[in-house]
Design a protein that fits this description.
It comes from Streptomyces ochraceiscleroticus. By secondary structure, the protein is an alpha/beta fold. The protein folds into two domains: 272 residues, Alpha/Beta hydrolase fold, catalytic domain (Rossmann fold), CATH 3.40.50; 214 residues, Rossmann fold (3-Layer(aba) Sandwich). The chain is built from 19 helices and 18 strands. It has an eleven-stranded mixed β-sheet with strand order 3-4-8-10-9-11-12-15-16-17-18, sandwiched between helices. Strands 1-2-5 form a three-stranded mixed β-sheet, with no helix packed on it. The chain has a two-stranded parallel sheet with strand order 6-7. Helix 2 packs across helix 16 and helix 11 packs across helix 12. The longest helix is centred in the N-terminal third of the chain and has 23 residues.
Length: 546
């Protein structure tokens, strides 16, 4: 009997020792579960190199059939465990669009969640990413959030949203709410999903930073100005994006033109006619609707989701007041100016006179053709004045600095940057001898793993690591300041960050930025944004196409 008792005590002692060891293991070392309960059902992700990925989670019902051109509707609950190991379909877009390929569908309202694989004692901050692509192309699956999630101990969410005519068509009779802004409402629905569910993935719903690049950056500004989106985010990052929008009248004019091209010109039956058409016919009819860099879709101001143009909301202090990180690349529009590659001095000057009228002589005095090197003098000259003047939707240059001034006037935690790497890798065909500089989107591969990321030099890889840490610090603290890296002061202190490879990033006075972009000149008179694409402007000036 005593031996049985002794054995029992020994077993109990062993169990107590095991429990002590287990309780001594820090929570951060314990794995996070791969099966997570959302408000619509269970999902099961996959573990990959220290990060758990949950891919292709529906955040709204498929916008098909009667739901085409309607605000996003709730997802139907599912039973059992839904696999979350493959991306959902990309939203329908042009075959020449960014990020296109197989797997496109109208049924595309999916998101992806990336979270560190280990448990933490407290919920983690969240980066909510909105892709770019001119509101006409792109997809969330192009942005693998694993690198940012693991490096910064944050949760990353990437999303799809409706594009082109499916996301931004405005036509009488389409819907009672959201006309012209279905893509924007998709983004808000994904933010609401994040608020409801991110806690189950280890995220903190109270610390969601929405971020976007190009059209994604435009979207962030629109969401800052959208009353229904208030409270869905605690911070914002705008990369190479501004605050452009269409008026309802402009959007309806575009919509009627599209309806006619699609064979639905009867005003009394336009909406029902379009709804009855197959998606591929609608897509092929939308080439003019998609347009080019300056003639594509934009958010539509004047409705309940966007009462004011975003630029007006910022100017008048009626946009959300949250910490903001905002910036652009040094040579945003240079590659877009390639239609002027073969422009003569006379053709270049003709284009400037057509654009700036009475101010053309002063513009030409500041940007003389002779100041730029051949054989691409026309491209370098016109892209310099376009970039400095911010005539591409207010992107980069002097109007961009003014936009930042307006944000910073109300929000002390405003941080401004310029991506100044002189030779980042770029995709696409580059003419022999042409210097692309730091064009639009060239910074994206420094933050997200993609094709250009594999082409970074050692110094550029260092800049990539620094940017990932700066962005992560902003998501965590509303401030990009990062131990061990160059100090990044608030723009309130009249400083901005020049991002350079090889550990050379540094804070500079805002007057340096103003001098680089000749802002004393551009701020001295009023001028409009361009509304014609570069190839058409070059054609009007008589520039040969090849």
């Amino acid at each position: 009997m005593r031996s049985i008792v002794r054995r029992g005590l020994a077993v109990l002692a062993s169990l107590l020792t095991l429990l002590t060891v287990v309780s001594a293991v820090p929570a951060s070392a314990a794995p996070r579960p791969l099966t997570v309960s959302t408000d619509k059902g269970l999902v099961k992700g996959a573990a990959t190199e220290g990060v758990n990925q949950f891919l292709g989670i529906p955040y709204a019902a498929p916008p098909v059939g009667s739901r085409r051109w309607q605000p996003p509707a709730p997802v139907s609950p599912w039973t059992g465990v839904r696999p979350a190991t493959a991306h959902g379909s990309r939203c329908l877009q042009s075959a020449t669009g960014n990020g296109t390929g197989p797997g496109m569908s109208e049924d595309c309202l999916y998101l992806n969640v990336y979270t560190p694989a280990h448990r933490t004692n407290r919920p983690l901050p969240v980066l909510f990413w909105i892709h770019g692509g001119g509101f006409s192309s792109g997809s969330g699956d192009r942005y693998d959030g694993s690198q940012i999630a693991e490096a910064n101990d944050v949760v990353v969410v990437t999303i799809n949203y409706r594009l082109g005519v499916f996301g931004y068509l405005d036509l009488p009779g389409l819907s009672k709410r959201g006309a012209g802004n279905y893509g924007l409402l998709d983004q808000e629905a994904a933010l609401r999903w994040t608020q409801r569910n991110i806690g189950a993935f280890g995220g903190d719903a109270g610390r969601v930073t929405m971020a976007g690049q190009s059209a994604g950056g435009h979207s962030v500004c629109a969401l800052l100005a959208s009353p229904p989106a208030r409270g869905l985010f605690a911070g914002a990052i705008i990369e190479s994006g501004g605050c452009p929008s269409h008026t309802a009248a402009q959007a309806v004019t575009r919509g009627k033109k599209y309806a006619a091209a699609a064979g639905c010109s009867d005003p009394s039956a336009g909406a029902s006619c379009l709804r009855a058409k197959p998606a591929d016919e609608l897509l092929s009819a939308g080439r003019d609707f998609v347009g080019g860099v300056l003639t594509g879709p934009l958010p539509v101001a004047g409705g309940p989701e966007l009462p004011l143009p975003p630029s007006e909301a910022v100017r008048t202090g009626r946009s959300a007041n949250v910490p903001l990180l905002i910036g652009s690349t040094r040579d945003e529009v240079r590659r877009w100016a390639l239609p002027f590659a073969h422009a003569t001095k006379e053709q270049y000057e003709r284009a400037v006179r057509q654009e700036f009228g009475a101010q053309a002589d002063a513009v030409l005095a500041h940007y003389p053709y002779s100041a730029y090197s051949s054989p691409y003098a026309g491209t370098y000259a016109i892209s310099a004045l376009w970039g400095d003047s911010s005539v591409f939707y207010g992107l980069g240059g002097c109007q961009y600095q003014k936009l930042t001034d307006r944000f910073a006037a109300r929000q002390p935690h405003t941080y401004f940057y310029e991506f100044d790497d002189p030779h980042p890798p770029v995709l696409g065909e580059t003419p022999a001898g042409f210097d692309s500089g730091a064009p639009h989107s060239s910074q994206v591969g420094y933050l997200w793993p993609m094709a250009t990321s594999k082409l970074l030099s050692p110094g550029q890889q260092q800049l990539s690591r620094e940017m990932v840490r700066y962005w992560g610090s902003f998501v965590k603290h509303g401030n990009p300041a990062t131990p061990g890296l160059a100090a990044w002061p608030s723009y309130r202190g009249a400083k901005y960050m020049s991002l350079l490879p090889g550990g050379e990033s540094r804070a500079l006075k805002s007057e340096v930025y103003a001098a680089r972009h000749q802002c004393s000149f551009w701020n001295s008179f009023t001028y409009d944004w361009l509304t014609t694409n570069p190839d058409r402007l070059a054609e009007q000036a008589g520039v040969p196409t090849s």
